[in-house]
Amino acid sequence: TINLCLHKVVRQLQLEAGLNLKGFSQAAAALKHFCLQNAQHDLLLTGKLCSFSVVTFSKPLFMNNDYSKAS
Predict the structure, then answer these.
(1) Cα(59)–Cα(44) distance, rounded to whole angstroms?
(2) Phi and psi (nearest 5°) for 30?
(3) Average pLDDT over the chain, rounded to an integer
(4) CA 44 – CA 41 distance, rounded (Å)
(5) Do residues 39 and 67 touch, judged by C-beta distance below 8 A?
(6) DSSP letter string, 8-44
(7) Which pLDDT tens digit goes with each residue over 40-53?
(8) What is the rounded CA–CA span in Å between residue 46 and residue 23?
(9) What are the φ and ψ backbone dihedral angles of 14, each rounded to 5 degrees?
């Protein structure tokens, strides 16, 4: 049983070693880019369910749509 546990740990470490891990700042930049690219479709930012929807909400979460200042 100990041998089996060690084998599982070694296998997990081998899998993790093979992953292409990104640094935190690179991952944060990729996430920010994704959010900025998809902001026009975000219900919380626009107050609209989708671009062709007639249903809107009285107040979007963010009234200021200048996302370039967000950090």
Answers:
(1) 9
(2) -65, -40
(3) 75
(4) 9
(5) yes
(6) HHHHHHHHHHTS-PPPHHHHHHHHHHHHHHTGGG-HH
(7) 888 777 777 665 65
(8) 31
(9) -65, -40
Cα–Cα distance for residue pair 56/54, rounded to 1 Å: 6
Q: How far apart are CA 11 and CA 67, in angstroms?
A: 43
Beta bridge partners of 56: 48
25-33: long-range contacts (C-beta < 8 A, 24 or more apart)?
Answer: 32/70
Q: pTM of this prediction?
A: 0.39
Q: How far apart are CA 53 and CA 5, in angstroms?
A: 54
Q: Is the pLDDT of residue 20 over 80?
A: no
What SS3 class is residue 5? helix
CA-closest candidate to residue 40, choices 65, 12, 8: 65
Are 47 and 31 a contacting pair, CB within 8 Å?
A: no
